[in-house]
Amino acid sequence: MHNFDLHWPKTTAFLNTDGQRCRIVWRAAGGIGGTIDNNSLCKKRLAEGLSFSPSLLDELRHSGYSILAEEISRLAPPPEGIEERRASGRTVPPSDVEQLRVWLDTLAGDPSFGVCGTRRSREWRQVAAEGTDGSIDALFLKAPGSRSKGDWVLKRVPNAGGSPVYFSSVSFRGICAYLVETPPYSSRRFVDAFAAECVPLMVDHSDVRSAIEAWHGRRI
User: Fold this and answer.
1) How far, in Å, CA of 197 to CA of 210, rounded?
2) Each residue of 144-203: pLDDT tens digit?
3) 3-state class (DSSP) for residue 207
4) Which of 18, 145, 166, 193 has the fewest CB atoms within 10 Å, counting from its CB?
5) How many helices (H) and strands (E) does the chain have?
6) What is the pTM of this model?
7) Measuring CA to CA, which residue among 83, 12, 6 is closest to residue 52?
8) CA–CA separation, 78 vs 67, rounded Å?
9) For 49-135, where are the alpha helices, taking DSSP H only?
10) Which residues, including other chains, have CB under 8 Å from residue 26's CB and lie 6 or more apart?
């Protein structure tokens, strides 16, 4: 496997590849880190970041990986898009939301979630208090049993009154996707607090452990 420095601003990132298998190992300046092992997703990220590593394609070709270089080249945005991105001074990742999406892409499981009917449980865990990071609604999380294939459920309790709204997903990744897609929860500050609240769940749920370790960029 060869290593290639991707030169992502504010992020240490390397591509590991043998020309067929691709893996990106990254760590943001704030401590978030992880790996992307999916070949298709790696190629997409490499193509999107070519403005920061313009020599990458030539380096791949020089190392004998011409086919991989061509695949990445075909996925690259138009040249004017690259120049606009560079002129705007955008970094990778340029915002909280994009950093969260990079993190979400490293997680295993189904990222889909949806509104569901009322769910009852004795095991609600509060993962967001009123006012956290500008939030006006509290969040409570119900995990499936340690031996159960049941859904993860998130209960959002409106501070202004009214009935709670429930969201479910077959995986913890889906709960994380809800946060990434829903202001005001889509911030690094909020996810820091959310990860801390979910630490006790790591004992029975390996996907929670993986998500928190990826968030912090290290094993816990």
Assistant:
1) 15
2) 876 656 899 999 988 777 789 999 999 999 999 999 888 778 888 888 889 999 999 998
3) helix
4) 145
5) 8, 9
6) 0.60
7) 6
8) 20
9) 56-62, 66-75, 79-87, 96-105
10) 6, 8, 11, 12, 13, 14, 33, 34, 35, 36, 102
